[in-house]
């Protein structure tokens, strides 16, 4: 045999071995795994020299015999086969061993892909991708398809597009996708891009069997992956539907990216209706449609409807992966509970249901623990829950009832609860991660001004390896510089607020000052930075310094639209003016400048500060004493 990929007759004396190998191949394709194992055993008894080939094939057949559920045993065998000798020697057995090691390494990457261990899969695939041009065309197509799927799964969209160009112009593995006439890219960005098209399943291919039949189907897979890559990179392409849900779902995702949410929803509903009528609805398809409908409604701020769709998607997903330990690899790869819970948690935050949001985030944070945005969302859930408890206690005290709420008493120190203490831990994690990624972002995104403009990249070279994607917020889309700065500002603001609530005034002041030093700071965050800094200074007995942050004149220069479009209590510049004036009155009172503080309180009538202003004015009146007769009040 000159290859470990297909049965080939090399010598007349090996006709019997070749015949047995072909029979084993046929029995495998017919799912007659017991008979296939018998034939492989007979080959070994006859002294077949391809030891690694037989070992690999026996492991793959045994894996299929168990219903494709015992992947751990297969992975163990593949790891042993990967350490085969190289192809430098001219020995036939060594070449067969190297070819077997190639397929074994590929199959290892396939297993890691299905287990959602995308980083490990990419790492295992690196040696094969490095010598992609030297591989047989069938194997090269398999490796290229898996590499492209992994790049898309990890949101490395720039690298995926460059790798696609490399495959097209260097290896001629994919055809040119049809483009539409407009030259401009469609406007708009997807904040939570839906998984519209499930990547095609790549199954372990036994060595010694022909993979040319599989390559014929890979052309369609690569074409679909090419379209997905171009759509996600906002390239103008025409998607010709072929009647399959994959292409129809990709069309829906294209509508979504172009912000045509109504057409995206109609497209998804059409897919659901057509598949229902044809009787080929699967849990995977139902999960995909329900999740994507939820993302669309989340985008247009229909939060209650979005939450309902996400809950439906979870129900479908649980039917699909009820017991992952006993599931096939393909079923494992179809499970999307982490991503759906991530989306549901965001919807619950908008619905002001922080306990449910917190519980939703606990699952995805185990898988996406390096996502700073997820840690921030968990902290926001903790803050919202704490503030809701304070409002409830205040309401009960005003009604004269005994507060029934009590502080959290976790069952175990290892059980996270939506408390301010846990919020502080989340924010420290979010801040550390964001500062780390920000440094890497600027290193890769800021070009040097001392060098000339770079030459256009040659798609025939492997320049795709050097491209960087700011994809550190998986499963969300890659982060832009603007969204990174906004996230950092939100972390500073939340960290300062939590520190004030916990009595850590030094940290609160530090975070407020860091917030005010941020670039591209919104007017809302600018107001919060001054407010938190002023409050921290007052609590540190530095009322004079606090007055510098509480100048009401700067509020008038703020953009009213920035207040009206945010989901918070300060809905107008007038409300912000009242809050800043009240805090300034407190600072003046602490400095015993009582007359000026009283004059500021006289004009505060907003509902946010009306009650507190009245109480502070009464306190000042008591402290100033009775007004002498004949003196105007």
Description:
The protein has 633 residues and is mainly α. The chain has a domain at 499-624: Serine Threonine Protein Phosphatase 5, Tetratricopeptide repeat (Alpha Horseshoe). The chain has 27 helices and no strands. The protein has helices at residues 15-29, 33-45, 51-65, 71-82, 92-114, 118-130, 137-153, 157-171, 212-232, 245-257, 261-278, 283-299, 303-320, 329-334, 337-350, 354-362, 364-367, 372-398, 420-445, 481-502, 505-516, 523-539, 543-549, 560-564, 573-590, 594-601, 610-624. Residues 1-6, 8-13, 86-92, 177-219 and 445-454 have low confidence and may be disordered.
Please state the average pLDDT score.
Answer: 79
- CATH architecture descriptor of the domain at 499-624: Alpha Horseshoe
Instruction: Classify the beta-strand content into a percent band.
Output: under 5%
SSE order, as H and E?
Answer: HHHHHHHHHHHHHHHHHHHHHHHHHHH
Going by helix content, strand content and strand pairing, the class is mainly alpha
CATH topology of the domain at 499-624: Serine Threonine Protein Phosphatase 5, Tetratricopeptide repeat
Low-confidence runs of at least 5 consecutive residues: 1-6, 8-13, 86-92, 177-219, 445-454
**Radius of gyration, whole Å:** 31 Å
Helix content class: 55-70%
The number of strands is: 0
Count every helix, treating DSSP H or I runs of 4 or more residues as helices: 27
CATH class of the domain at 499-624: Mainly Alpha
